[in-house]
Amino acid sequence: MGVHVLNILFEHRFWLQILGDHSRFIYNSLSPNEIDKISKANYFIEKFDALLYQARKDLTPKETETLTMAAYKSTYDLRSFKLKIISKQLTGEIVISQSPTFINHMVNELEEYLFILNQVINNIPPNVCSLNYHMLWLSDGSGHAASISSTLDFTQKSFINEARSFSKTFDDLYLKAIEFSGFTRTGLDSFPALDDLNFTAEKVMLNFKKYLEILLYKISNKKTLGTLVPLVLDHMNREECYYLTKLATVSETKSPNCDPTKPRI
User: Fold this and answer.
1) Is 191 left (phi over 0), alpha (psi -120 to 50) or beta?
2) Which SUPFAM superfamilies did the record assign (predicted)?
């Protein structure tokens, strides 16, 4: 199997599972009265599970191309569904327990996959620096931490305070990444301050991953209370692993000892 096929299958195996998770999160958060939306969310669960099943096979280049086109269409359709939900949230026309920002972050992630698929379909060589990953995943990490802090039982003060601290740190790093993105207009996509940001982001994210792993164990074994379900924490951990994996391809940071494509719990 060629390197190109392996690379895109890695992306498919990560992203198709992530979008299957998103579909589950939406399905589980909709009011029982939202019959049409529940049916649509279930459709996407089945669709992305089927695509993921295909992606985990040893595919030929032609089969990979077919999968890529099918993934693009389904991902674009899911984008429309998510945006319709956000639109109805903003106008008070839907009952769903997820916040608009939470779903908006899921749209941000989905659009990163569409960006990758578009490059593959149109044979556009990848041209990204570490800031491309920081801009998506630092904001996302902040959202993860904030979501955790708001869904833990209020007796879990230590975990709540840690989550809030992580959220603030991610916000600070994200603001730095925004400014540094402006600096790339000089033609530079690498400079010492950016190298420092890369290493700082790596360190903070590795610490956050450890936090997620501890919390996942405690939530799974009912040692920590809250409305968090294990899949959410597992999902977050896979995303942070992907971020660190991609960051290592464009910087001097180390590739993490984890697999972002591992099967969901």
Assistant:
1) beta
2) Bacillus cereus metalloprotein-like (SSF158430)
